[in-house]
Specification:
Pfam families (chains A, B): Chondroitinas_B (PF14592)
Number of strands of chain A: 69
Number of domains of chain A: 3
Strand content of chain A: 35-45%
CATH class of the largest domain in chain A: Mainly Beta
CATH topology of the largest domain in chain A: Pectate Lyase C-like
Helix content of chain A: under 10%
Largest interface: A-B, 34 and 35 residues
InterPro entries (chains A, B): PbH1, Pectin_lyas_fold, Pectin_lyase_fold/virulence, PL-6
Shape of chain A: globular
Oligomer: homodimer
Protein name (chains A, B): Poly(Beta-D-mannuronate) lyase
Keywords (chains A, B): Lyase
CATH architecture of the largest domain in chain A: 3 Solenoid
Number of helices of chain A: 4
GO molecular function (chains A, B): lyase activity
CATH superfamily of the largest domain in chain A: Single-stranded right-handed beta-helix, Pectin lyase-like
């Protein structure tokens, strides 16, 4: 924020000789006054929205400022003007500034929360949204599409904003390039804090998308710089560049489950970004390259475990003469002076190669065109522990020139590669997790490729002229803020309001009335202890926050007997509901559900963890309705008995790549006498870039199950990408198949004992509907 | 040329304060001296090639000049250094100039005559070829591919050159964009004279091609300006732009049978060009648009009759999500301030629409995507005679905005179009064929679209600021040379040598000896008069120039009895052979051919005209071998009797769009007892942009023919695009079919009398091999 005022001041300073800077502040208290102020706005006007909630407002900020005298629409106090309810903001005109608004507790009635245009022909130029926030401003259901910031026009800016929590369909921020008035736009997305975006369970959940395939020939020249992306997990692409000449500089991708992808369009510059992973996650990616002429320089990759599509550097195979919306061949790409530290198999080439599927897929889906005229030079790989396979070549790399790259793999052998030299060098910490090689590499001769002289500085901006060195860093940062210092991202007011965390409590409840009121009173994160032995519940318990419910004694389960109506759940999982249920015996009378999502309006995801429980006599153990989504469903050390159906997450049958849960984990459980849908987990539509869901079933026993199973299939995992069945026992289940695994994907089974229960088969290529 | 020296002088002038301009002239007499001079060349060197023929030289001009001191390789006297034989010129380095060379009487041993590079990595930059010529420098056969000028690198130039006569496969001039060192090239192709390029009979005969589909995403920024294109008839594209941001300005396309086509790539500027047609030709096109963001402004179209792919303005349909090498949808295109004068149906939209073929072609070949976000504004159409259909919409034009266009159609009604106003205005001649409306239109209000303020000047450079007017011209040219004055194009020395035309003669020959020596002595254009009644010829008469042979008396035919070996022709058609045979009785003894091409090395086309003759007792009347090509084959008022085969032009069976003749005309002839291949004319391969050949058969009689016809088909025209059979008689031919016409193309039959000769059928969609 400060930076911005500094800039603005200097602009005013520059023009002060010629023009008197007169700010004409107009305070407005409601939409009528606001509309009037806007329609009368003159260059230099400063329209001030009074603090408070502005509910159900559709603001059309159409006005014409000029370079010297923009027109500002701002909060009386930044962050204290809350836009709520069914609200949106559209801008058109020239030199407009929006400052300090907070979109919360509502959703847009239109296709965008903030739109830099009101029609194809009427767009905003030279305008900016600054120091503002959009939080959880979700439409009611995840299939209802919108964007939170939609860029049109030219020379617009989103800066120092905080944006988090989008769970419905649609990229968070999108650049529209349809129409000559929106090309060569030189938009800037800078200094923002992109907070967590939960996984959506299917495509169209990018954090930033620049264009689309239909306009992917357009020159965009958008700058995405100095942003912080934290847990941006919406889908496999955090940033999806689909236009030309974009620049991505000095962004931090912190534990974000996706990659920066040059999906369509060409000639992008990806320079000086930091990608930080997590030892526990294989979902966090780096940079994935498709297309022509991209330059990838000075980037730093740390602790990344993602593979193939999500690998730290994924250079894809293309489709020969690709259709516009598929995969163009990689050509004329330069990857130079980057560093990979403690990443698993960080370089992968020919990613997406699927020539083995040429008999079952149409020719226009076969990615057989390997990268050509591509240079990988002067890069650094450093591993604390040796990596068996630092480079994976999924297809030929004949078209890639490797030059003057260095690896310290702690002496561990791997398949050699010309142009990648093994060296035993030490490292120096330059800043936080950022390492550089010590001086032992300083005389290693670098490759000087065409226009490599343009790589003038390192990740920190240090000159490379006198300090040649492989990797992203040649020295410590000088006069530069630590990129990991999050205070420099987003609005200056947001950190304060976000820190008002209340203290969590434990509620001990000895009867149903206390239980019910505790559920209602609890704040997110609280624990409810069941001190009685038994609770007879007559209506669903609504879970819309993080709640842990557990028995008072660790050695005896509390009993919850659910006596509600048929087809209602004991626990109703609402958006943002996160239930941990521990040490409870949960009993129905065969007509109800133990757990279920809402049937409609699942605007955000829910999570469910069941530990050390017994669940019996339900129609469904878990019923996930269409459009509901859970990131994590976990059953551990739990017995499930005498239920008509088990875990049913199979309602997304539109075959568009959507599914009902990201991760399902079943460990050390017993399923006894569950008649059908023991586990029914479905994902439809051939879409190679959707790489969920994930099912793990381990150390569990299934017996007398599947009597009414559809297709005689005990565990139905149709279209799920990652499945692992290990160390289970399947005893006396009257089914033909325990499971049908998808051989072409990451499905596996091991060490299972199967007795009188059919078998596990592997089908190499499932017939799936093509999505494109 | 003068302009260039002026420029160079001024550069020298500018630097004269700092550096002394020292020209170091080094005269070289052979390739050894030349190589030595090149390898020792220093900035400022002026290497002078001695006048004369330089045969079989492979010049590698690799040197490094600088901006102030380029290195020059020049002819002692411009035009007097002839590069002949198996020769080529490759350049690499910086600031090189080649001046005054004449490539003639030879061909390149490599893939280019002049190449701005010696390898992928070693290219020329800031270099130019000036004041030079490449004439008839053809490889031996038309399937042997080369380029005459191949651009690589950046900032190179071809200026004031004369280039004509290419008949082998490959564009005349090509820009290569593979590799980062060849993008953003800012090459200039300026002030050249592109002389006649004969039709090739199939694809790959562009005069200029900028890139290819594989590199069509590359930014090129090539300028093609102030060139004259005369009879550039190689194929359907005179200029094929296949990259981005190219500019085509102030070129003249004079009776060139093709169009300026934005085939791949986007955002091209086509401004101020003149397209001049011919009342007699439907082959001459204008501008054909594919792709995104092109601006077409200030162009003048005169007397054009081309239709669909060749229409004066052809806005194509695209293929949805087109493969890289097919047809991208037209989007965001602007067509403004152009003039069409006396053109037939000048505006055609949705060209190439083939949704009616969706059942027989793969989805990836169906052009169903109509133009969108396209603006056609402020244009002028003027017709001396009313046009029934000035605008043809082959598909929906819902995505095109027509604004403030004006037509004077002399009151003739046509289907109305919003945004095209009929006005009865007069015209003023501004220059040659260039008209503008008179003042009656001066108050017509123009449309002001996005960035229309960038259309600052008219075709002649007159400012549009104070003079708003529809069409390409707002006033007479001021201080500007007439664009039709050809003296400003090409080398200054070429016009002189070209004017050395010898006078044509008539040779009267009374015996075979005289006949034979006349054939040998004649120069192109001469006539040989057969004064005897009969000539017995024992070996083939070689025709390698334009020769007319006719009987002395108009009322009695001379007889030529051909007694040569079996399978040899009476007349052997060589490259550039043009035979007119009139009033001759040509007789064989059943084993020979009357006319045939060479079997090999048909480096250029031949033409054959047969008038008032009788041809009998041959194995073949005309045998066209593979790779031979004729532009015109005409038989008029001629009787053909007792031959095993007729006209056989069916050897191009590779199905790559090639064919053996462009135009075949048979009028007022008799075919009697021709057993097979009466007419066998073949073109294979589905390629919608190849729009030949052409067969016209009129007023002729076919009797007792086809006894041994393949498939029982009398006239085989498989794959020929334009066929017209009219007013013929087919009597007593023992065949099943007279002809099988191609309904989807321009095949038609009318007023034919058919007796005991099978029938004519129409097949809507021929099964053809897909070429792409």
């Amino acid at each position: 924020m400060k930076k911005y005022f500094l800039l603005l001041n200097s602009v005013f300073l520059l023009i002060s000789c010629n023009e008197k800077s007169t700010s004409n502040a107009i305070t407005v208290n409601d939409i009528i006054e606001l509309n009037s102020a806007i329609s009368n706005a003159k260059p230099g006007d400063d329209i001030v929205m009074a603090n408070g909630d502005w509910k159900d407002v559709n603001i059309k900020f159409v006005a014409y400022g000029n370079e010297q005298k923009p027109i500002t629409l701002r909060a009386e106090t930044p962050g204290e003007v809350r836009i709520t309810g069914t609200s949106d903001l559209k801008l058109a005109g020239e030199y407009l500034i929006v400052n300090g608004l907070h979109f919360t507790n509502g959703s847009s009635p239109s296709s965008a929360v903030i739109d830099f245009g009101i029609s194809q022909d009427s767009v905003a130029n030279h305008s900016k949204i600054t120091n503002s926030a959009i939080i959880d401003f979700n439409k009611a259901q995840r299939n209802q599409t919108d964007l939170w910031v939609l860029f049109k026009g030219r020379h617009n800016e989103l800066d120092h904003c905080y944006i988090a929590g989008k769970s419905n369909r649609g990229p968070t921020v999108r650049i529209d390039l349809a129409g000559n008035n929106s090309i060569k736009n030189y938009h800037k997305i800078i200094n923002n804090y992109f907070g967590p975006r939960p996984p959506k369970g299917g495509p169209s959940a990018e954090t930033i998308q620049l264009g689309n395939s239909f306009t992917s020939m357009a020159p965009s020249y958008t700058l995405v710089a100095n942003n912080y992306f934290e847990h941006c997990n919406g889908e496999v692409e955090v940033i999806s560049s689909k236009s030309n000449f974009n620049e991505f500089r000095n962004n931090v991708f912190y534990k974000s489950e996706g990659s920066l992808v040059t999906r369509h369009g060409n000639y992008c510059m990806i320079d000086g970004n930091i990608f930080i992973g997590d030892v526990d996650s294989e979902q966090i990616g780096g940079i994935r390259l498709i297309g022509t002429g991209h330059w990838v320089t000075n980037n730093y990759f740390y602790n990344l475990k993602g593979q193939t599509f999500r690998s730290p550097l994924a250079v894809m195979n293309g489709i020969p003469k690709s259709p516009l919306n598929r995969y163009l061949q990689v050509t004329d790409v330069v990857v130079a002076n980057n560093s990979w530290v403690n990443c698993v198999s960080p370089w992968q080439f020919g990613v997406g190669s699927n020539t083995d599927q040429k008999d079952i897929l149409p020719k226009s889906e076969i990615r057989s065109a390997t990268p050509i005229r591509t240079i990988v030079a002067n890069n650094l790989i450093y591993n604390d522990k040796g990596d068996k396979q630092p480079i994976i070549t999924h297809d030929s790399v004949d078209g890639v020139s490797f030059k003057s790259n260095v690896i310290n793999n702690q002496g561990m052998k791997f398949k050699d590669l010309d142009g990648l030299t093994q060296k035993d060098f030490g490292t120096t910490v330059t800043d936080g997790v950022i390492l550089m090689p010590n001086s032992s590499l300083s005389d290693f001769e670098l490759y000087n490729g065409f226009e490599f002289d343009q790589i003038k500085a390192d990740l920190f901006g240090n000159s490379r002229t006198d300090n040649t060195m492989v990797g992203a860093v040649v020295g410590k940062p000088v006069n530069k803020k630590d990129m990991m210092d999050i205070s420099q991202y987003g609005p200056d007011w947001y950190a304060n309001t976000a820190s008002k965390n209340e203290m969590n409590k434990t509620h001990s409840v000895s009867n149903v009335a206390e239980f019910t009121s505790a559920i209602s009173d609890a704040i997110s994160g609280d624990t409810i202890v069941l001190s009685a032995e038994r609770y007879d519940i007559n209506s669903s318990i609504k879970i819309n926050k993080a709640i842990t419910i557990l028995a008072a004694k660790t050695d005896a389960k509390a009993t919850i007997q659910y006596k509600g109506a048929a087809k209602t759940p004991a626990f109703e999982m609402n958006p943002k509901g996160q239930l941990t249920l521990k040490n409870v015996q949960l009993i129905g009378d065969n007509e109800q559900y133990a757990f279920a999502s809402l049937k409609n309006n699942m605007s955000s995801l829910y999570n469910l963890t069941v530990l050390d429980c017994e669940i019996s006599n339900f129609d469904y153990v878990l019923k996930a309705y269409k459009l509901s989504f859970s990131e994590n469903i976990t059953f551990k050390s739990t017995q499930i008995k005498n239920c008509a159906n088990g875990l049913d997450l199979s309602e997304e049958t539109d075959d568009k790549g959507e599914y009902n849960a990201e991760n399902i984990t079943i460990d050390n459980c017993l399923f006894d006498s569950v008649a059908s849908n023991v586990v029914d987990y479905y994902r439809g539509g051939y879409d190679e870039s959707t790489i969920g869901g994930n099912l793990i079933v381990t150390n569990s026993t299934f017996t007398n199950c599947g009597a009414k199973a559809e297709e005689g299939l005990l565990l139905n995992t149709y279209g799920i990408i990652n499945v692992n069945l290990a160390n289970n026992k399947f005893l006396n289940n009257n089914v033909q198949l325990v499971a049908r695994l998808w051989g072409a994907k990451n499905n596996k089974a091991s060490d299972n004992e199967i007795t009188k229960s059919g078998k596990i088969i592997v089908e190499e290529n499932l017939p799936l509907k093509l999505m494109y």
